[in-house]
TrEMBL record:
Name listed for the protein in its UniProt record: Nitroreductase
Similarity remark: Belongs to the nitroreductase family.
UniProt keyword terms in alphabetical order: NADP, Oxidoreductase
Species, as recorded: Campylobacter avium LMG 24591
Gene Ontology molecular function: any one: oxidoreductase activity
Domain Nitroreductase: 10-186
Membrane-spanning segments: none
Record-linked PANTHER family: NAD(P)H NITROREDUCTASE YDGI-RELATED, NADH DEHYDROGENASE_NAD(P)H NITROREDUCTASE XCC3605-RELATED
Keyword Ribonucleoprotein included in the entry's annotation: no
Length: 207
């Protein structure tokens, strides 16, 4: 089943359990590409996508996610990592910013551009950098979930996990920390509830 973008918005729901059907590689690539193309503040792309697909890995991850069935039964879990090396001193940030400069830019001009891109992050501590990167990771998350539904693939965004344990399980080191998880597969059951949302006039205010 293939859905339009609009249908995907309507169809996607927080899927609580998946069937045994596996996601095909080209569909998975499509989903990951949607994540890669997500926008990010200053174009930092402060993320990495770790993909788990082995049954035993998904089950082990589920244990760190309060035994959520969707995580355990997923065809694939994408763990979105936030990266925090986003300051002027950091090689990664410098590399990202350099892409926005012409190749023969002089040192002073580069420093000027770098300072403007990292103005906010330079003043942040590690916790604030994580929160900043984590926000961007949720854009990739949303984009991947919508892309998945376009291909008829169900998902659940997972914020319910023991972060320190997931970081340890994935053997993460600076600059990476777990931001959020996307469980993917094919729905075992239809959604329990009709989509519940505020009315458009409750969320939109024209001025
Ligand atoms: C950041 C985030 C974290 C979430 N974490 C979980 C989770 O750990 N487990 C779960 O079953 N659903 C989780 N959800 C799904 C929400 O509960 C769900 O999207 C919301 O209730 C709206 O329902 P719908 O997505 O079916 O329309 C999460 C959603 C978001 C955006």
């Amino acid at each position: 089943m293939v859905f339009t973008f609009e249908e995907s918005l309507q169809q996607r729901f927080a899927c609580k359990a998946f069937t045994d059907k596996e996601i095909q590689k080209d569909d998975l690539d499509f989903i990951l590409e949607a994540g890669r193309l997500a926008p990010s503040s200053c174009g930092f792309e402060p993320w990495k996508f770790v993909v788990l697909s082995k049954k035993e890995d998904n089950e082990a991850l589920s244990k760190l996610c309060f035994n959520q069935e969707n995580v355990a039964t997923a065809s694939h879990n994408i763990i979105i990592l936030a990266r925090t090396d986003l300051q002027a001193k950091d090689e990664y940030a410098r590399k990202q910013v350099a892409r926005f400069c012409s190749p023969n830019v002089d040192k002073d001009k580069f420093q000027q551009v770098l300072n403007s891109y990292t103005g906010a992050t330079n003043a942040m501590n590690e916790e604030q950098l994580y929160a900043y990167a984590n926000n961007q990771c949720h854009l990739a998350l949303m984009q991947m979930a919508t892309a998945a539904m376009v291909k008829g693939i169900d998902s659940c965004m997972i914020g319910g996990f023991e972060k320190a344990k997931v970081d340890e399980y994935l053997r993460l080191n600076y600059p990476f920390q777990t931001a959020v998880i996307l469980s993917l597969g094919y729905r075992k059951n239809e959604p329990k509830y009709k989509k519940q949302r505020l009315k458009i006039e409750e969320v939109v205010e024209y001025r």
